[in-house]
């Protein structure tokens, strides 16, 4: 399985775990403003965007940071061994992005390594569009 396919499979496993939790609405590949969010979920009125990467963690952080305008919190989800690296953690904190860690496959659990701060400049119309896109996804 190529890396991109592995990332998608990994994301789908996390999605299925989230969907089983009460009060959470979750969807994959949510398109908004010409971008695609790997995983989006809503819990208690808060929208959280998550980008998945097996290796290119800097790319994931750049993508996640772009979602600050439309999501309340943004995360990157990385393999456990990468997510606990001091350089990754320091970079995430400086960019205002949270870090989730997980085993690739099989996924037994995922955990938050760096809690994402609440986005300071969420654009209300953009968030409304994102919420609508989430509701349309099955």
Shape: globular
Backbone structural class:
alpha/beta
The number of helical runs is: 5
CATH superfamily: af2093 domain
Q: Gyration radius, to the nearest Å?
A: 14 Å
- CATH architecture assignment: 3-Layer(aba) Sandwich
* Number of E-state strands: 6
Number of domains: 1
Write a structural description.
The mean pLDDT is 83. It is built from 5 helices and 6 strands, in the order H-E-E-E-H-E-H-H-E-E-H. It has a single domain, classed as Rossmann fold, CATH 3.40.50. A 6-stranded mixed β-sheet has the order 1-2-3-4-5-6, with helices on both faces. By secondary structure, the chain is an alpha/beta fold. It is globular.
List the helices and strands and how they pair.
Elements: H1 3-19, E1 24-32, E2 35-43, E3 46-52, H2 57-66, E4 73-79, H3 80-83, H4 86-95, E5 98-102, E6 110-114, H5 124-136
